[in-house]
Amino acid sequence: EILQLLAQGLSNQEIARRLFLAQGTVKNYVTSILRKLDARDRTQAALRARERGLL
Fold first, then answer.
1. CB hemisphere CA count around 21 (13 angstroms)
2. Other C-beta atoms lying within 10 Å of the C-beta of residue 47
3. What distance in Å separates the CA atoms of residue 34 and residue 39, rounded to the nearest whole number?
4. Quick one: which of 2, 38, 50, 53 has the most CB atoms within 10 Å?
5. Is residue 8 helix, strand or coil?
């Protein structure tokens, strides 16, 4: 779900509000997503997720 919202261009703060999570929790998840997709930024993560059929 965080990956989908990230791909929509939402900030960590916006994602946290929507999912009722702390911003720090979202930041940790985003960092993990970037690492797992070997992406340098959120845009590249979204592109790689689409390429792999994750979105």
1. 18
2. 15
3. 5
4. 2
5. coil
Tokens linked to 5: 């919202």
Q: Which residues of 4-40 are buried (b: 16+ CB within 10 A; e: fewer)?
A: ebbbeebebeebbeeeebeeeebeebbeebbeebebe
The DSSP string of 9-55 is: T--HHHHHHHHT--HHHHHHHHHHHHHHTT-SSHHHHHHHHHHTT--
CB neighbours of residue 48 within 10 Å: 17
Structural domains for the chain: 2-51 (1.10.10.10)
